[in-house]
Specification:
Elements: H1 12-28, E1 43-48, H2 54-65, E2 69-74, H3 86-95, E3 100-105, H4 110-116, E4 124-129, H5 135-149, E5 168-172, H6 179-190, E6 194-198, E7 214-216, H7 219-224, E8 229-232, H8 237-242, H9 251-258, H10 262-267, E9 273-275, H11 288-291, H12 298-317
Parallel strand pairs: 1-2, 1-3, 3-4, 5-6, 5-8, 6-7, 8-9
Helix pairs in contact: 1-5, 1-12, 2-12, 5-6, 5-12
The structure holds phosphoric acid mono(formamide)ester.
């Protein structure tokens, strides 16, 4: 594994290595001294061409907890606003001597472009590209599911090597614009879970029938199948208005048909968890009652994101792997 670009590129063994390493990282994070020396002397650049709260901050926290130096680059306020290209930006960073790049970009394929050229020769970690991929989100979601749906099933650490066989995950909402949905469908299938995608026809991409997931327009019917986890997707209104709108009649109507409200939450099996990658549109795809309920793992997903990103940075950037204990 030289780069982390795409959930589909990962073999099951690689996914399990990432999840098990993240468990080892998480075990170090309850200590008073959270820092590990494993990336001392390395420099990681966070190259963010698109807004982010969770991913940017957790990659920064992860790199710092591994003792790396972190350079945060935001396209806003940089020479990108003067027209500087991705190539020139990458080569400028390379000239400063860096060891890894975390990139988020609105253009699908931008991280792959960086990884496939000679502009920069360091590991590239995809932090979300357009509507294409968000592999570390899928990994942190799988990590969270493994903790809740296997073993003690109470959110405590999962046993090494555990997959998600036999579990059924329902992913609901704006699949069309969601890199989270794409990455999750791929990774969940690698781990042996079955997936149902639920969305209005206007929010399903062309070719979704080839993703290997069941597709439904009916959220209540999907809930009646007693899934183990339901993942609500953010309605990406910024991408919809850029496309001229018209994807659903009104926010009220969307919430009525596809929102996770109290009634639907109570119809879920008792053990089922409620997930959302954030940021949430409360009252649209998810009600506050569901988002803030004891079965919601939304904030745990954020916590687990730091462990997953520590694992990814460690496995890609550390030369000789040291003991994590
Ligand atoms: N889930 C996620 O990618 O959130 P951010 O956009 O805040 O990073």
């Amino acid at each position: 594994m030289k780069h982390l670009l795409n959930a589909k590129d990962l073999t099951k063994d690689e996914v399990l290595l990432l999840l098990d390493t993240a468990e080892a990282m998480a075990a170090t994070q309850d200590r008073q001294m959270k820092k590990l020396p494993v990336l001392r002397g390395k420099t990681v650049v966070n190259l963010f061409f698109e807004d982010s709260t969770r991913t940017r901050i957790s990659f920064e926290a992860a790199a710092k907890r591994l003792s790396a130096d972190v350079i945060n680059f935001s396209a806003k306020g940089s020479s990108v606003s003067k027209g500087e290209s991705l190539k020139d930006t990458a080569q400028t960073l390379d000239a400063m001597g860096i060891d890894g790049v975390v990139i988020r970009h609105s253009a699908s394929g931008a991280p792959h472009r960086l990884a496939s050229t000679d502009w920069i020769d360091v590991p590239i970690l995809n932090a979300g590209d357009g509507t294409h991929q968000h592999p570390t989100q899928a990994l942190l979601d799988a990590f969270t599911m493994r903790r809740h749906l296997t073993g003690a099933k109470d959110g405590s650490p999962a046993a090494d090597g555990t997959d998600l066989s036999g579990n059924h995950v329902v992913i609901v909402g704006d699949v069309l614009h969601s890199r989270v949905a794409r990455s999750n469908v791929e990774l969940l299938q690698t781990l042996g879970a079955t997936v149902t995608l639920v969305a209005p026809p206007t929010l399903l991409p062309v070719g979704v029938e080839n993703w290997g997931a069941k597709v439904s327009y009916d959220l209540d019917a999907a809930i009646a199948e007693e899934p183990d986890a339901v993942m609500m997707l953010r309605v990406q209104r910024e991408r919809m208005s850029a496309a001229g709108g018209g994807f659903f009649p009104s926010p009220l109507e969307y919430h009525r048909v596809y929102g996770l409200d109290r009634v639907r939450m109570n119809a879920l099996p008792e053990h089922a968890i409620i997930m959302h990658p954030g940021p949430m549109n409360r009252g649209l795809e998810i009600s506050s009652e569901a988002a803030d309920s004891p079965r919601s793992t939304i904030l745990e997903q954020v916590t687990n994101g730091v462990s997953i990103r520590m694992a990814a940075l460690y496995l890609l950037l550390a030369g000789d792997k040291e003991s994590l204990s």
